[in-house]
Design goal:
The chain is mostly beta strands and 115 residues long. The chain contains 2 helices and 8 strands. It has an 8-stranded mixed sheet with strand order 2-6-3-5-4-7-1-8. The chain is globular, with a radius of gyration of 14 Å. One of its GO terms (cellular component) is cytosol.
């Protein structure tokens, strides 16, 4: 049996940009993606701490070290610059393997930089 479990999480980063007129996705600083074991085009869930919105989209690599977290396309309507979000990815895994799996969770600072 396969189940869905938490794979990775970027906990509490600030939205730095929102680009409505762009093909949808979320652009994230490559340092944050790498630290959280996430890759470009991976499906993610975005949870907005400020307004309770939840949405699914995919990752685009942002400039390494920039702290960028930019919602693009229709997702830009779900958050404002300065909102705090959690970026979550999940994976399918065998039930027994999932019992032993440890997700990768990172806690960036107030400027979206690795601590």
């Amino acid at each position: 049996m396969q189940i869905q479990i938490l794979k990775s999480k970027i906990h509490r980063v600030k939205i730095t940009q929102a680009e409505l007129h762009y093909v949808g996705s979320i652009t994230v600083d490559e340092d944050l993606m790498e630290a959280a074991n996430m890759i470009e085009n991976e499906k993610v869930q975005i949870v907005n701490i400020n307004n309770g919105e939840r949405l699914e989209t995919y990752l685009i690599k942002g400039v390494r070290g920039s702290g960028m977290v930019c919602l693009n396309g229709p997702a830009a309507r779900k958050a404002q610059v300065g909102d705090v979000v959690i970026i979550i990815s999940y994976c399918s895994m065998d039930f027994e393997d999932a019992k032993k799996y440890q997700p990768k969770v990172i806690f960036p600072d107030d400027h979206n930089k690795l601590i």
